[in-house]
Amino acid sequence: MVPIAAKRPAPILTLPRVLDCGCCLIGGVTFVEFPCQNVSLSAGSFCIIPKNQWPASNLRSVARTYFSEQPPFAVSPSLFVLQPGEATVVEVVFFPTTAERSCQVFTIVCDNCQVKDISIEGEGQQIAFELVSVSGKKEPPVVGEVHDLTAEHFVRFSPCNPHSVQQKRLIIRNNVHLDLPFHWQIMTPNLHPFLPGEIPEPSHIQFHLAADDVFHVSPITGVLTPFQDQEFLFTFCPKELKDYHSVCHLVLMEVPQLPPQPTDKSVLQPVRTGSKVGDVIVMEIEVKGSTEPYQVLLEPYAVVIPGEIFICSTTRRQFKMWNHSKTCIFFQWERISNSSHIIEVEPSAGSIEENECFDFDLVLSGGKPERVVTSLVCSIKHCPEPVTLAVEVSFKGPIVTVSVPSVEFGLMKLGEQTQTTLLLTNITQQEANWTLKERCDRQQDHQEIQISVEPRTGVLSPLASCSVDVLFSPHLCQRYETELVLTVENGTGCHLSVQADVQCPQVCLLNCELLFSELYLGVAAEGTVTIFNQTLLPSHFSWMDQLQGKQAELCSASFDPSSGSLGPNACLEITVHFISHTDLDLTEVAALCEVQGMNSPLVVGITASKTKKLSVSYSLPSVCSPPDDERPSTLLLDFCDDVILNRAVTKQLLITNQTAIPAPFHIEADYFTCHASKPNNQSEKRMTYVKKPLHYVQAQKIEEKALKEFVSSLLANGKGAAFFVLPDTGMLGAFETQTVDVTAYTDMWGEYRDHLICKVGDLKPTLIPMQMTVTGCPLYFQITGPRPDNQNQGPKTQFGTHVSGGDTVSRSHRIHNPTMFDIRLDWETYNIDQNDHKLVDVVVAYGDTFPVKDADGNEVLNGALRISGGSAQTAWEGNKTSGSEGTSSPLCSMTSGEAKEYVSEEEETCLYPSPAKKKLLSVHIRPHVGDLSDYPYCITPQQLVIPAKSSSTIHVSFTPLTGSGCESRCVGLALGFMGLDSEMAACVPGKVVRAQGLDLEPVRIDLLAVVKPSLLLVQIEEDEGVLEFYASAGDLLKAESELVVREFDTTRAFQLRNNSEMLLHFSLGTQPPFKVVKQQLEVRTSSSSDPPTGDSQALVLHPQQSMQVKVAFHCSLPLLDHADQAEEEVPPGVTLIHRAGEGRKLRFQQNLLIHYNDNRLQTVPLCACLYLPTMRLSRDSIDFGFCFVGQTLITEVNLHRNRALTYWKSVIESDEGDSHVFRVTPDFGLLRSKELNVTSCSHCLQISFTPSEDGVFRAVVVIQSPLMKTPPTLQLQGTGSFDKVYRSNSMSLKHHSRTITTCSP
What we know:
mainly beta; eight-stranded mixed beta sheet; six-stranded mixed beta sheet; 48% strand; flat; cilium; DLEC1; Ig-like_fold; cell projection; tubulin binding
């Protein structure tokens, strides 16, 4: 026997444990397929049987059929074989019979005796529908109303008109979890009457399709989705006037019938493959609707047009149509159109909404005159009866009108023709044949025809017009009257009256002679004559230009008006302007006037007496007119003695014409002439180029510029003054007094004299003398510009505040000379003392007060003068160059020569100026202005010539005073005395003379400066005003590769501020151990930085600015030696301070010195504290006692230090050579604190004793430091022994615990 054992892996199927078949209507069948795959590595045979049939002895006997059935489920195949990876489909049939959820369990048995249970679930459902809502108004059936026997729901449509459409929306809900196909059927209602409580018999219920086709349902067919609302549209479209009644059936298609009751043998029956299905009515909805006729109303129902209307013209009348129907109506109007008339409605077709009206126009157009009574028919769509509108109207024929009721030709002159135009208008819509002619009795005799019509006949189109010309040609003077007849075919004519008055012209003079008693030669005299028109006819007259008679050539005349027309019976005055060209009496002169239409002219006789000549007088406004025998030369135009320079002064002169003879006049100055247009004209020309209106300030500037240019053009001749006459020319009228403005313009001082030359007509020129004295200064400074009110005042020059003994400060001033003369200025400077009580200065000069000097300041002698071209000129004047405006020109000088005599008469000699003779001595008394001095103020150059139309520059310098210990004010002034080196500039004999030097008010410049001592504001953070430094000597030690001693600096900073208004120069100085750090100094208020500074380096600090100064305390090892020196050996400023608990420190006190350039000195206190290192041991000696040889005893000692950190090193010394038995741990270190601001700390040292033999050992521990000359020491002693008694106590003894002591700084 060989035992055999085998094992096969179980097959694995993917079939889920629960098979859900979903929902199915009861009586129906649902087939559901489920995939099944063998995912194992072994094959198997499977059998599906109901759970209640397992276990079974023989599977094949159980699975006899293809289906394994357990109602209401059946599974196929009941037996199948699957190889590894092979799949099949398991089909489940679900056939519910009740509306409930079913579940059955089936067993899957494998041939390897493995069993698996699966559950099959499904739900049977019954049909269920619900009517959710109906749109619109809900109208239930009324009591006693007939309705369908089986209908479940009722829907009523509102009454409407035929062929209208009404709709309602119904929502039906499917309460089943299945898709149900449906369709609708419109059926006739079952209207069998019932008694209350009676049940209808099935024979009474019949199903017939409705035949009227007025109710519709949309959609008519479809599928109802599970548990969803479906919307249906019910439409009512009636065709006739009656009530409609139907029933809408909702029919479900292919609904299964309920199965028969199951029997016991049904289990053995095979599975049903299908059930009987059919259509089922699930909902009946009863619908009703009714119709009403159309309600249409006309307003008004008839149109009657009163009166008559013209044929061929269109007339409109309005009416309305109301729609009171239930729906919109569509209308169509008929049209009456024949050969005679047209009657229609606009618009002819359209629609009218419910309960609305529509406006129509009834259009009528007649073709012939008659009365029309008719009716218009309007058809309404779907309405059997039309709507009619009654119309009644009367038409009449054409009418032609004339533009005027009569023709009036008015007054006419015999021999002339006149014509008028008549406008004929056809105001109707038809053609009009017309004829216009004179009455028959006037056309009998062709010789007497005086009126004609063109055209005489014609045809007028509808609403057209035409013109007819009527021409009248009279043959004699008469009162003409006639008639014109207008005839219209088939219309109404009219008559026009025609009138005319024919006459001849006749004019006469009311006065025939003119007498002129006072005449002036060449001046027109006026006289008047009157002409009269004796008829109603306008008469045209014309005066002859040429006079008639023997003396006609000695005179001339003009007439105003010279020609014209006279109205009917009108008078007209004619103005006669008569001019006599002789001084004889005129008696034989006549003037002729021609009248059109008269055979002979009108004649006027003229008589004139002798003529007079021109006569003119002169006067001033404040003086009465001079008598005839007074000479005009006695008048004087005096512009006063206080005329301000550059300020115009105007005087007036009156010129009176004592005759009626107008004459031209011309006025100008004799010497100081000028030629320029009015300043207003120039400004007006400029304003023409300005497109936009100017601001007031802009316009004022333009006016000022124009005036300045105008004055410059007047003074362009270089004489210093000009007399501008306005008007300088013109016409002096008859007996007119002309006011002449004489304006004096000046740009140089002096006494001026001149004549005003007046020329009128042919009279001899008249000379009127003028005089004025001009004072002021023509020069001005560029910094201030011209000062019209204070011309001699220059700029107030302020030099500000300066340091005493500082550098000289200079100010430049440019002086402009706008005149045509070279002006010399001699400058003097004065100091003003407030305690000076002088009132006047007496200035005595020998010769010239301000003689001409050369470039070196030496006076130019008179012998150096030379005469050139009639004027005195120095030898250096020819070398004068036209340098730039920034440099002053060389001085020029000219001697006084003898002036030529321009006036010979004695009285005129005293009136007009002559050159002044030179004075040997001159004395001037003037108000005291100050002390003459050139310190501290000075002007260079002291003498300069400012060229004409140019400028020069002077330099005003100020040298600050020295030696002043407090602030002082320096008040001064500079006077510039004006002079003229040119003789022609100084005097023009008989015209102008100009004062110079002290005789003139000088140019004044006020000077002011302030001198202050040097001082800076020191800003230190400390309140005591001392710059303090703190350092520790321990910082000298630097731990690098090895411990080294390095010097270091402690730096502090403070601010220096210049609160003054002057620039300060200074340097900084210190002594060791302090020093000024050489670094970039910051200036707070300036963007630029000062150069690096240090000890004794010059610095500059601008006004109101600050700089930062850094001072360093230099710490070095030699400074520590001061701690051990005797008191008398310690340098000044060094102090040793020792306080308990803080250790020792050295205090260094010095001053930072600020050296100013005026030798002033300012100090800043400096103080530095250097903390010295101090070390001590907590014990002075240690006695270890007895210790077993070879063993070690350890004790601890604290090493303390105060304030300064320090480096230490322990050294064990012994005179007996016992140092090897003692040991210090650690033997070196840096003594510092780990905490900030700690004034003291300690370090724990372990002292060990290891005896090497029996005996006593002694040694000394020395704590050495490079910063301390006296180190602390520790005495050590111990005894070695072999006695075992000390062996147990030799482990470790600590006599002192390690402590750290801290305290506040």
